[in-house]
Design brief:
single chain, 7% helix, PorV
Length: 362
């Protein structure tokens, strides 16, 4: 196990040394499943259901039957919609697979690039609507290793990003993960974009001022764009690391408690509370209290950031989360409220998700 972890870390450091963007494909870092979001995303060690395809594919080996999961969340006063759909199934006693789809998009955006015609007249009938949406399709695989309690998992991702007719991209990447369970202790490690994720963009020329529709930007008619250049057509996402430790507690005959502490690592300088020119780290802690595996109460805190104030000073912001859940005969409904009290730079959101176990159809 130690050799595998060292190999994963070596790959991360090697690829992160390349010239890449600090932030890329950020919609894939939001998280999925209201249950996990209620615990501040501190689930890399304990995830063991259909949603493990996102959090830690090594946890898929804990599936006992097929499962499907769906989540919806609205951001920025319902301007943006975030949706997630996943399906997972065990292949045998030692392996499992999952498929998932994520969409984060803003729809019905006004396109006013053709509002003024070639003669300088304003024509409101020339206003069109378009969508800016990001998609991610993921195939996940998990398998037990000969060491008892140890499993590994991997993701293959296809990313599609579309900005109306102006620009679009295709991207490809891989994740790798481990999970280990010993008695009531659980450990997990997830390396996202372990080989870096590559996005190739196609940017249309008319996106910067083609009023005549001839494919040539009308720079003489719009002085503001004379000095503009087309953006870069390639984008590299550097690896990110999440590792954590969790412990289960039995509180009487019907009550149970799961607690987990995670560390989220970026190989770049950010506003995380632990930050240097090469690495940034922010912790996350979450808990889940259950009654007879029917009713769940969750809480967590994470996203600790140094936030610059108007007077130039820095304050530490954090994101407290709360969640509840209910499970009955293979159907689980979860709710999460993120950023309670607006303690971080993030905007709070209400998140709902549902998980269905195939056993209810048998």
């Amino acid at each position: 196990m130690k050799k595998i972890i060292i190999a994963l870390l070596f790959l991360v450091v090697s690829f992160s040394s390349a010239q890449t963007r600090k932030y890329s494909n950020e919609f894939l870092n939001i998280g999925v499943d209201a249950g996990a979001l209620g615990m501040a995303n501190a689930v890399v060690a304990t995830s063991g259901d259909v949603n493990s395809g996102y959090w830690n594919p090594a946890g898929l080996i804990h599936l006992e039957d097929n499962q499907v999961s769906f989540m919806h969340a609205a951001y920025f006063a319902n301007i943006a919609n975030y949706d997630y759909l996943a399906f997972a199934m065990p292949l045998d006693e030692k392996s499992a697979i999952a498929l998932s789809l994520i969409r984060f998009g803003v729809d019905d955006i006004l396109d006013t690039t053709s509002l003024v015609d070639a003669d300088g007249n304003i024509d409101y009938t020339r206003i069109n609507l378009f969508s800016a949406a990001d998609y991610a399709f993921t195939f996940s695989y998990s398998r037990k290793l000969p060491i008892e309690g140890l499993s590994y998992g991997a993701n293959a991702k296809v990313i599609r990003r579309v900005i109306g007719d102006f620009a679009s991209s295709w991207g490809f990447g891989f994740d790798a993960a481990l999970q280990y369970q010993k008695n009531k202790w659980q450990f997990g490690i997830m390396v996202r974009d372990i080989t870096t994720t590559f996005n190739a963009w196609n940017v249309e020329d008319f996106a910067i001022g083609d009023l005549n529709g001839d494919g040539i930007p009308d720079e003489d008619q719009i002085p503001q764009i004379r000095d503009q250049e087309l953006p870069e057509t390639t984008e590299i996402t550097i690896p990110k690391l999440q590792f954590g430790a969790a412990r289960k507690f039995d509180l009487g005959k019907k009550f149970g408690l799961n607690t987990e502490l995670d560390m989220n690592v970026r190989f770049a300088e950010t506003n995380d509370i632990i930050s240097s020119s090469a690495i940034s780290i922010t912790p996350a802690f979450g808990f889940e209290l259950d009654y007879a595996k029917i009713v769940y109460l969750r809480g967590g805190v994470g996203n600790f950031q140094n936030i610059e104030q108007f007077d130039g000073s820095d304050n530490v912001g954090f994101q407290p989360n709360f969640g509840i859940g209910f499970q009955y005969r293979g159907i689980q409904v979860d709710y999460a409220l993120t950023d309670i009290g607006d303690q971080s730079a993030a905007i709070y959101s209400n998140v709902f998700s549902i998980k269905v176990d195939w056993s209810i159809f048998r």
